[in-house]
Amino acid sequence: MDKSLSHIDKQGKASMVDVGSKPSTHREAVAFAEVHCSTELIEAVQQLKVKKGNLIEVARIAGIMAAKQTSNLIPLCHPLPLNNIQLDIEIINNQFHIKATVSTTAKTGVEMEALTAASVAALTIYDMGKAIDKSMIIQNIHLHKKTGGKSGSFQSGNT
Q1: What pTM, to 2 d.p., does this model score?
Q2: What is the second-level CATH architecture of the domain 25-155?
Q3: What are the residue ranges in the chain where pLDDT is below 50?
Q4: Where are the domains of the chain?
Q5: What residues are annotated to the active site?
């Protein structure tokens, strides 16, 4: 496998990868993020007492919208036709666990779309909950797995 940076040309300039000759294949990526917060915020979310609305549902929609805008946010990302975006948010102890799953049938993968979805969902949780808990910590944003494409499958050791 070629380990060179794909977005840098021979002169060292940033460039968009030419995927024109690649076949369209089914691709999927899963990304995770965590938001650590206070018991007070968790209770407010569970009792639907966050002033800005249903925090989990708004964060879910924000993540979905963000995945669809990835090529506008991340330079050199290709705009992709997304088949599906699934965003799950689970409360475990004093943490929001975010899982973003994105799929496409295209010439390039959806890793950045999944990572963007998880990241923006986490940022939305922070935005909506900061009136109750400004000390929230967003962490562990990572690609969990991906399938399809020239480089094949990948699975992180992190969960």
Answers
A1: 0.90
A2: 2-Layer Sandwich (3.30)
A3: 1
A4: 25-155
A5: 127
